[in-house]
Amino acid sequence: xxxxxxxxxxxxxxxxxxxxxxxxxxxxxxxxxxxxxxxxxxxxxxxxxxxxxxxxxxxxxxxxxxxxxxxxxxxxxxxxxxxxxxxxxxxxxxxxxxxxxxxxxxxxxxxxxxxxxxxxxxxxxxxxxxxxxxxxxxxxxxxxxxxxxxxxxxxxxxxxxxxxxxxxxxxxxxxxxxxx
Amino acid sequence: xxxxxxxxxxxxxxxxxxxxxxxxxxxxxxxxxxxxxxxxxxxxxxxxxxxxxxxxxxxxxxxxxxxxxxxxxxxxxxxxxxxxxxxxxxxxxxxxxxxxxxxxxxxxxxxxxxxxxxxxxxxxxxxxxxxxxxxxxxxxxxxxxxxxxxxxxxxxxxxxxxxxxxxxxxxxxxxxxx
Lengths: 180, 178
Fold this sequence. Notes:
heterodimer, A: 180 residues, alpha+beta, Immunoglobulin-like, 5-stranded antiparallel beta sheet, 4-stranded antiparallel beta sheet, 37% strand, elongated, disordered N terminus, disordered C terminus, B: alpha/beta, Glutaredoxin, two-stranded antiparallel ribbon, 43% helix
């Protein structure tokens, strides 16, 4: 429903002005209003259980596999990672090497980013039994905040001898919220 | 569509993308202080916590001053980073009625040597992990550290900040309140 220009001047002039106004308005919204709107709300930081997602599975009747999926821009301290089980004993948790970081206060510290997978061999097979694996972790965001030590738990059923690995179990089933 | 209008729309689209990118970058990456939606700090002022000597201290005792309450912990590197600034500002403006109070989300035996090392010139109260809940009630919904609130002389929360406080922001805010 275009209105026919009534002026005798070039009819092409008007849309050009409108386009540039739109452009300027968009730039203003982008540069000015948008960040203010965002920062007026809480800073966009993830809660620890989302920044450091924990999951685990049983590889066989005497081996667990723990997995942290660390969100981009976050890191975990290697020496703060601890595992415990309600059934049996973890024989020897060998944590993979992290990335060395020289901290002004803590000296040389090892940190993890991305995905960390840790094999947890149990001292004896406990096939067919159910156990709870608890993982303690502590980390920070590059944005300049740290989270208190957090414990996350998964319940795992160990497979019978000769059966394949179990399914990967998430510590906190993700709540479906399309607006987050 | 003529060629010139295609060019125009390309310009508009790129401007919009650039603007959105700039907006989300600055909006997300910087931990902005919350604008002063002034509300009473009753819960915080009414809180009593032990100091490093084990003596109970009620925050109310500093009412009438401008009180900067800083939630921190020894295991939090960014917290430790900003504390020398607090020592300096307390030194400079203490006489004008400024009082820093640290609430440690930590254990007293870890806090004590650290307080000595940094020559902290303001009281540290031992909050343990329970202090995270206290900070949540004040707006620290993500429950991360450091977290800082400033209470004005009337006992209202005038400022809150998750993450390290910028020196110029701190000084500017305090100038208006002192």
